Every structure is written in C-alpha cells, then in structure tokens.
Automatic annotation (TrEMBL):
This is Lysophospholipase L1. The lineage of its organism: Bacteria, Pseudomonadati, Bacteroidota, Flavobacteriia, Flavobacteriales. CDD domains: SGNH_hydrolase_like_1 (cd01832). It comes from Salinimicrobium sediminis. SUPFAM superfamilies: SGNH hydrolase (SSF52266). GO terms for molecular function: hydrolase activity, acting on ester bonds.
Amino acid sequence: MLRFFVNIERPYAAAEKSILVALIFIMKNKLILILLLVISGCKSKEPENITVLEEDPVRFLALGDSYTIGESVPVPMRWPMQLAERLREEGIEIEEPRIIARTGWTTGELLEAMETQLNNEKFDLVSVLIGVNNQYRGLSPEDYEQDLHEIFRRAIQFSQNGAAGVFAVSIPDYGVTPFGADNEEKIGMELDEFNRIFQKVAAEYEIDFYNITPISRRAKEDASLIATDDLHPSGKMYTLWVDLILNEVLQKIETDK
C-alpha cells in the first residue's frame, strides 16, 4: 500500500514570515537610533566662549585748596597721591588722582573752578577739603555754609556712586604752626566752628566726614609734622591722615564692586 505525504502550508504563511522579519528589522533600527541619541546627549558640551570683563580703574577727584595740592611738599607726598598709592598696595587699580585745588582758594573760588574745569565727568571717589581760607580771610561762617551746600551737591553729581562715593576731610588747625602761633587760640576756636559747619552740612547729604584736625594739632609738639614753610603739613603728617582714612575709603570702593 502506497502512502503519499503532502506538505500543506497554511495560507499566507510566507507573507506573515516576511512581515515579521521586517518588523524585527525596524525595531532593531529604532533601538540603535535611541542608543545613538542617548550617547550623543551624554557627550560633554563644547566649552562656550566666555568674555571676561575687566573692571575699569578707580577714578579719584580731589577738591580743595593748599592742603589738597600739598603746598611745600613733593608731589608724591600730597595726601591724595599717598592715598592712591596705598590703595594700589591693597590691590586696587586706580588712576592718578585728578586734583582741582590751589593755594589760597576759598569755597567760592573752588566752585568757580568746578564750573570751568569739570564737565560731565564721573569719578568713583570724590574728596572735599575746603574752608581754611574762608577763615583766614575773615569770611562769614554763614557764607561758608551756603557754599558748602553747592559744593556737596556738585560733588555728588560728579560721583559715580552718588553721596556714597564722596567724603569730606576736616580743616587742619594751622594755629599750632610757627606761622599761626601768635593767634593760636583764636585760630583754633574759629576753625572748630568752621569744622562743625563742615561736618553738619556733610551729614545733611549723608557724606562721610573724616576728622584729621586732632592729628594736625600734634604738630605743636612735633615739628616734623610741619613743612619747611612753617605753615603747611609735611608729607609725614599727610601719611598720618591717610592712615586714618584708608580703611574707610577701601570700604567705599569694595561696596561699589
């Protein structure tokens, strides 16, 4: 008896097999694509170009009279110059001080100079030391006070940081010098009155007031604190002024950063 074996496949079996193979191929490719995207995302980003902005040097405007210009002392020994140098030693980049001052100037003459010598410039620091010639010439304390208001208003305008960038330095007492010795008591009393006005007006504008007058009075016992003209401070005295105000000025600069 002969037996016949016939291999009968299900309809469409070959087609189903082809579809299955195609699906597997597509899924494998998708998996590879996902892996590539993950790997690409994990790669470190290229470093961006970073622009480092350098800070501009500090600009310092010193307003005043013979005490600011440093009458009878070498230029490097003027107190604004000494202050700038000490700030450099503290790591502060600062330009040479701009000094608007002249021996003999009163508040009125300083105001005129501020009007003609300064435009719309801005400074990080502005100092004011003025008034001894108002006293010396017998000008009234009332006029002194009135002028101070205008000087401080303008100083604030010149300051990059408003009143916070301005400071006042008290008037030294020249009555203890050989030049003023004959009227020591009178000079001292009058300068005390001018300094009270100076400090009061500064406070009205929230301007710091640094009192160097007690240092100036040490010259009565220490002639090395007086310049060779027997009237003005020596470079040594100006150093003592800077010792007194340095940390305060540093705080002003650091607060601005």
